[in-house]
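Help!! Second protein's tokens look totally different from the first
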Amino acid sequence: MRANFRMQRLFVEMSLGAAARHEVSSEQFNYLANVLRLEDGAEVLVFNGRDGEWKTRVVFPSRKKIVLEAVEQTRPQPLPSDLHYLFAPLKVGRLDYLVQKAVEMGAGLLQPVMTQHVQGKITSMDRLQANVIEAAEQCGILAVPEVSQPKKLGDLLDHWPADRRIIFCDEGDEGQNPLPVLAGIKETKLALLVGPEGGFSDEERQRLRSLPFVTAIPLGPRILRADTAAVAALAVIQAAIGDWR
């Protein structure tokens, strides 16, 4: 069932169910009362990543408090996406964009990866999580992706489960079309790895290409920025062997 984009959606931490009541945070109060200017009795869709989506009624017990009262479930909780997104952090503004687009494109887990040529860093896991939630609110998904702590690429590969295939975007690949390569992948557990602006080092590329659970793909004849490559790769994977089929 598709999301209802005519109603405002809000992420909450509380458990959702019949007759559930939730007092919103001060930030959510400001958004609902002062930005959206909702009045007593207005309806808002809420989700928590566990209990599906619920229609709630806005109640003002006082001038400075809003309580959301659950009315009915509008969508059941779907299974989470199993596509892992592994990425080298970018500078802050573009990192925000990258995270939001990965959520919209169906990533189920976001894993920052520190490579030799990485230019950005994760300064705040809270900001990363906030971007994930904001993207989930806007694009209608109910399963909120998990955000993992940053790991060095070498450490990640040392402990990688052999039953999950890593698809990595190799700017040095001689091909242009990723579709024939993707068509040969039989695993259902997948991860996409996108490197930094400076690309993978020769040492990293050689190691990745030597591993039996890694597949390299090209992304056309042009060199793409890392955030553009992420969206392009997620789209082609979802279309070829993911949940767009």
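Here's the second one for comparison:
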Amino acid sequence: MSAMALTCTAWWPWARRAVVWGFFALIAWLLVTQARTIDWGEVLDAIRALPATTLLAAGALAACSFALYSTYDLLGRHLTRHQLGAGTVMGVTFISYAFNLNLGSLVGGVAFRYRLYSRLGLGNDTITRVLGFSMLTNWFGYLVVAGAAFCFWPLALPPTWKIGNEGLRMLGAALLLVALAYLVLCAVAKGRVWQVRGHSFKTPSLPMALLQLAMSCANWSLIGGVIWVLLQGQVDYVHVLAVLLVAAVAGVVTHVPAGLGVLEAVFVALLAHAVAETQLLGALLAYRGLYYLLPLVVATLGYLVTEVRARRLRAAKGPVLEPAK
């Protein structure tokens, strides 16, 4: 390895941390700047003013989103052919997703899956494949929905932002090309096995990839619909969805559990010109209650039930749920 390559290898982790912390500092600055100008009493009034029908409609969309996301691990069940029941798999996925949203992906999406699936008899290799395929499904749909939104319905970005509408269109086109590349890979390399950090992953078929795409696109669209309903149509749906997609990446990059404050900062920065800040924040806080906190309560109860069930299962049968080699 050349001296230049060694230098790049040594500096890359630091450069990456600098970018992440710089982005985090930008979000923190947005939060502090906006918080000083907000009348929080009016925000609470805005929440109280939300009609019951609006809350019910938003809650129904949130329930549909969770139900759909809970089927992601069923795709991994099909690929790995493990023997856990569909209801059990959906329950584990629901619990992991709720904790993922509130505590971060490492604790919720990863740790809870490994904990619950291993307690139910699955081996680490199978769990890794199921988890990996669910994550791929989620972000595959993100690429397509975000790509379409940025490319065909670009946001009116603040003048202080470095990227303009044309830059956003180019980003959207790039995301769509990445998604297309995945579809092409599935079409031409079906069944090929890839080794990633000691784990084997098999390229799915094109029909499976299209199913991933449909499920994930529908789920991201439902999440955007929850916020759009709570905003009572004051902003076009596609723009609400686009802002949500920007906020989702911002939350991942900053590693803030539940994207706390990040979601609100991004929405205020991009939509404050169209919706009064108090109404916008009221809708977002209602969204957090419906999409984050309420499912967390249900997931906590579900986790306790699953632990008891897993203990009884292991005592009665032992870990016999792996497919025959």
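Reply: Different proteins will give different token patterns, so don't panic. The chain has one domain: 41-314.
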